[in-house]
Every structure is written in C-alpha cells, then in structure tokens.
Automatic annotation (TrEMBL), chains A, B:
It comes from Terrapene triunguis (Three-toed box turtle). One of its GO terms (cellular component) is cytosol. The lineage of its organism: Eukaryota, Metazoa, Chordata, Craniata, Vertebrata. Residues 13-207 form the Succinylglutamate desuccinylase/Aspartoacylase catalytic domain. Zn(2+) binds at residues 22, 25, 117. It is found in: Cytoplasm. This is Aminoacylase 3. Transmembrane segments: none annotated. Keywords: Cytoplasm, Hydrolase, Metal-binding, Zinc. One of its GO terms (molecular function) is metal ion binding. Its cofactor is Zn(2+). Pfam families: AstE_AspA_cat.
C-alpha cells in the first residue's frame, strides 16, 4: 500500500461499534453488552466509542436474523425505498441504524464503525475491509498485524468490482469488521472473547495515534479476495458426498 | 457392575440406528445417509442394522427440531394420546418410529437402538445409557472403553429416579446414545465423523461377540449422573455475567 493517512487528515471523533449484527455470534454480543455497562474501556484521550447492539431481536432469539440478513441490507434499495410497513424487521432496523450513525454517504455520518462477527471456520482473527482503496482501515489492519501477535490476522477484501457496499459499517465514513473463529454459533468461548477485546483495544490505540498526528509510513501487505467459488462434490441426486479434510478444518491436531 | 449378560440370553437380531434425531447434529446425519447408500458396512455375521433418519423435516431445515424436541417425545403421553391432528410434527414422527421399531415396551420391539448426537461441549465421545440397570448397554460401554482408545468415552446415565424414559432409543428393548463433541451445530467435522463411525463399528463387534455366546465377565466402571444444576452468575437484571473458563471449555491450548 503506497499511501498513508496524512497528518493533515481530520481526526476521528465519532466512532461506533456494533455487536450482534448477527444475533447468534456471541463474542461481539458479549462485548457490546459488557461495554454498555462499562463504557470507560472504549475511551481514549481524543475520542470515545459508542457501542450498540446491531440486531436486538435476533440477539434475543439467538438466531442470525429474524427476517433477512441485516448485514446485507444497507443498500440504497433497502435504505430509501417507500414506507417500511410490511418490510422485514431488519429493513426497519437498518434504517434506524442509518439514521443514527449515517446517513450513509453523508457528511454527518460517523467517522468509523467496527462490526464484530464470529465464524465456525478456522480462519484466525480475520480483518474484513471493503477494498484496498479504504486507506484508513488498511493502515489500521497493518497496525493490528504488527502489534497484535497472538493469532494470525489475515485481511479479507469483500467488495466485488462495481458492487454497492451493503454491510452495516458502510453507513459510516470508514469501517472494519472482525471475524473470529472457530466458534460455534450460540456459544461464547472465553478465549475468542478475550482475543476480540484485545484486537479492539489495539484498533482504538491506532485511532488515538492517528488523531494525535502520527504519520504512518507506506507499506506492502497481503490480502485475500474472492476469485471463485467451489461447490462440494455431490452424488448424482445432489446430496453432498464429501467433507472438509480434518487437517484443513481444525487448527490443532485432534488425536 | 456385578452382572454379565449370560450366554443363555437370546441373540440380538433386530438393531436400528438413528442419525439426525436432532436435525442440526451432523455426524449422525452424514453417517446415516452414508449407511443408507452403503448398508454392508453395518452388516455382521449374526445380524444386520437398519439405519434411519430420526427427524427428516428438521434435517432438511438443519435445525434441532421444527415443533418440539423429538428426543423428549417418546413417553406414554405423546405416544398414546388421542389423534395426532394439530400436534407438532415430532409427535406424529415419534408415533411412526414407535410403530416401526417398537412399540415401546412390547415383545415386538427392536432388540437394540443406537442414537447419534453431537454437542458443542468438550466432553469427548460420551456414551449415554438410561441407567446402570441396563446390563447389555453397560457391558457394551465397557467393551467400547476397553477397545476404543482414541478418545475418552465417559458414561452418562441420564434417567432420574422414577422418571419415565423419553428418548428415541427407549422404543427398543435396549439402547445406547453417542454424544460427540465439540462440534458446532450445522457443521460436519471429518475427525468426529470418523470417530463416530469407529465407535459404531466397535459397538457392533460387541453385539456380534454377544450373539456368538461370548461371556463377558463382571467389572467395575465409572459413570456420571446429574447431582444438581448450576446457573451462570448473573447481573441483577438477569443478564449472564460470566463465561466458561477457557481451560475447561476447549480441550486444547488455544494460543
């Protein structure tokens, strides 16, 4: 990455963090609830962070969503179509979030939004950014990779060419999603809870340095993009006939 | 355990195995589907096993159940009350299973039923029997513990004093449930699939030996029973305020 946030950039003053954008991914839900009780943990000298629960109804039922996936609902189509009556709950909720932390694409939008996720896949502490053109999040990723060394932190750039952003943190001016695994849905693992809390502390330290005028030099970094999708092998009747090899699925030797 | 199945006991001729009694516990679902395609794997010299899918509708949706927990539905109340109309799907399904492999408590019932489960908890390959008075299953557990050494196989005796049996394998004359973890719901782990398959092979070898008149000597064995339930610590508003310690939750050091 050949650019760095200039110290002439404006400091970030309004930062939010969503836990429970998916209501059965427990690290972020436990963290957001913890921070709502103990907001000082998210305070730094130059700014403070507003924690919130992304999808309260899904959290209550401990399911990913109740009507449709909230984290695919922050597009013009859903945020700006006619009345929300008869719409899934998540469309109504997306508009509330857009009103509070956006509106998306406007000057009033929050400066930054974090979004906290889990996966059952064994992918370490994955950092998800829309694209490499998002300079501030990319510098944050680089800072995290340099300073947080207790697990690998691969970077995943999710936005396909020409695609509109649709995720919850796209309502803010910039954003980063954390995707920690492996953890079963509906289960909270203390080790991943601690890992996510430490990663967030590291990311907030970066913002604090940025706000204080620190110049972050250029760097090269490795990141992953989707290049294609591969289905499972199947029987002629369509049933899946294979499974992921144990050496790929679990990071530890299970014997 | 001071008794042993006598070689004057009648051999077991009709044995069944249910996968997907809970529709999101994947090891048994994959195994039952595999055996339905390859029934020879379940064949022994003196008997054969009938595999079946416990809760097909829940399996299709990949959820634990659609109306009520099938594995709590094999009681007199649910099996014998009036017409099944307006009843949850699982009540109808329990009656089908009772007709096919029971009726529960009758001389026509199958000799043995296995039931395959997963858990997100780190409890190894748990062997679940109703009570220590079930001599044949207890001897099977002892045989498995002696011959299957790739993971701990603790025994859990689930039936409380005076309680009616309610599980799917209670429709057969005897039964054993396997509960393998940790595995996320809706996820299939190849290592646990292999473990369950090997445990089943071991259990069938025991039945084959029993059928051939092998005498199994008396033994002492360790087994677990519920002695009480402990809630999580909670905040005054009822919200859970703690989580399981990482050294207890995951069998491996996660660093």
């Amino acid at each position: 990455l050949c650019s760095s946030p200039s110290n002439r950039s404006r400091p970030l003053s309004r930062v939010a963090v969503s836990g429970g954008t998916h209501g059965n991914e427990m690290s972020g839900i436990y963290l957001a609830k913890h921070w709502l009780r103990n907001p000082m943990e998210l305070r730094r000298g130059s700014f403070a962070v507003t924690p919130f629960l992304g999808n309260p109804r899904a959290i209550e039922k401990c399911v990913r969503y109740v009507g449709r996936d909230l984290n695919r609902t922050f597009t013009t189509e859903f945020l700006s179509s006619a009345e929300a009556e008869d719409k899934p709950y998540e469309v109504v909720r997306a508009r509330e979030i857009n009103q509070t932390y956006g509106p998306k694409g406007s000057a009033q939008a929050f400066d930054f939004m974090f979004d906290l996720h889990n996966t059952t896949a064994n992918m370490g502490a994955c950092l998800i950014v829309d694209s490499e053109e998002s300079l501030l999040p990319m510098h944050m990723c680089h800072y995290i990779q340099t300073h947080y060394t207790r697990s690998p932190c691969p970077i995943y750039l999710y936005k396909l060419l020409g695609e509109e952003t649709y995720s919850i943190n796209s309502v803010a001016k910039a954003g980063l999603a954390l995707e920690l695994g492996p953890q079963p849905q509906q289960v909270v693992r203390a080790d991943l809870f601690t890992q996510m809390r430490d990663l967030m502390a590291c990311a907030l330290d970066f913002i604090e340095l940025f706000n204080k005028g620190t110049v972050f030099p250029a760097f090269e970094i490795e990141a992953y993009k989707i290049t294609g999708r591969m289905d499972y092998p199947r029987y002629p009747d369509g049933e899946i006939s294979a499974m992921v090899h144990p050496k790929l699925q679990v990071g530890v030797d299970w014997k």
